[in-house]
């Protein structure tokens, strides 16, 4: 069991506060959405999720920054944002005020959602962040405590087979895997160029941990989740230069996204 505000917590909190200060891509609120654009941005129908969010309780888990939260709010959802960074949460509040909507913000670690127990969310929306902690099982156990029966859990995460691999791994003929495919393998690599404005100060590299597909899948099943959607997220850049980020994303899809429905006892 992890210790509240342990070294992992402190590293992630400090890094994300620095990302906010640097105005990194993931920290920039979306301030030019309308309902149609919000719907297209979230892509709910593509994921097999209902597009009618009026009054539905949505949790943006480790998803601060004023992006997904305001998109959901514009579509009528009752939105809570849970994030480790106070700076990210401030951007959610500012973006909500910009649109004349309301979001609830809670600061904390995704490994401990006790502040949200009893909430019974109808949708937990979890963008890329799972690899920032070593053991996904703790996170999934916490999610199961706050999602209502029949509710959905959207998870976007690193493709475990290529975790830690980037376009810098190009060796002239392919992208060389060098790390073992084991749970909790630690990795670190530079942020991509598109994360920052050209003149921005770069900060310490992300610290991530591999989560194998078998651990993720079996852990979610054991917690009572049933898979309803799975997709590899890849780039589509014909003619991209080998060794570039665009080429890499077409050869080795960097991300997975999935949707799980909470049906305890179904299996």
Automatic annotation (TrEMBL):
Gene Ontology MF terms in the entry: S-adenosylmethionine-dependent methyltransferase activity
GO BP annotation list: methylation
Residue stretches making up the Methyltransferase type domain: 60-154
InterPro entries: Methyltransf_11, SAM-dependent_MTases_sf
Pfam families hit by this protein: Methyltransf_11 (PF08241)
Gene3D superfamilies: Vaccinia Virus protein VP39
The entry's keywords: Methyltransferase, Transferase, Ubiquinone
Record's protein name: Ubiquinone/menaquinone biosynthesis C-methylase UbiE
Organism: Nonomuraea rubra
Organism ancestry: Bacteria, Bacillati, Actinomycetota, Actinomycetes, Streptosporangiales
């Amino acid at each position: 069991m992890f210790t509240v505000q342990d070294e992992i917590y402190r590293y992630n909190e400090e890094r994300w506060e620095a990302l906010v200060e640097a105005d990194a891509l993931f920290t920039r609120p979306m301030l030019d959405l309308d309902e149609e654009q919000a719907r297209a941005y979230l892509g709910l129908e593509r994921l097999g999720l209902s597009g009618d969010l009026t009054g539905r309780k949505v949790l943006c888990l480790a998803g601060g920054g004023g992006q997904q939260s305001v998109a959901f709010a514009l579509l009528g959802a009752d939105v809570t944002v849970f994030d480790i960074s106070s700076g990210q949460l401030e951007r959610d509040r500012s973006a909500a005020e910009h649109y004349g909507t309301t979001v609830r913000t809670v600061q904390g670690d995704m490994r401990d959602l006790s502040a949200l127990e009893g909430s019974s969310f109808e949708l937990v929306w979890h963008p890329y962040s799972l690899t920032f902690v070593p053991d996904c099982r703790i996170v999934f156990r916490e999610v199961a405590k706050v999602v209502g029966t029949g509710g959905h859990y959207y998870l976007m995460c690193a493709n475990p087979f290529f975790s830690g691999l980037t376009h810098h791994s190009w060796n002239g003929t392919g992208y060389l895997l060098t790390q073992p495919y084991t749970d909790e393998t630690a990795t670190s690599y530079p942020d991509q160029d598109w994360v920052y404005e050209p003149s921005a100060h770069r900060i310490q590299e992300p610290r991530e941990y591999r989560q194998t597909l078998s651990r993720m899948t079996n852990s979610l099943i054991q917690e009572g989740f049933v898979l309803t959607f799975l997709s590899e997220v890849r780039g589509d850049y014909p003619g991209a230069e080998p060794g570039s980020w665009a080429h890499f994303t077409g050869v080795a899809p960097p991300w997975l996204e999935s949707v799980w429905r909470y049906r305890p006892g179904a299996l």
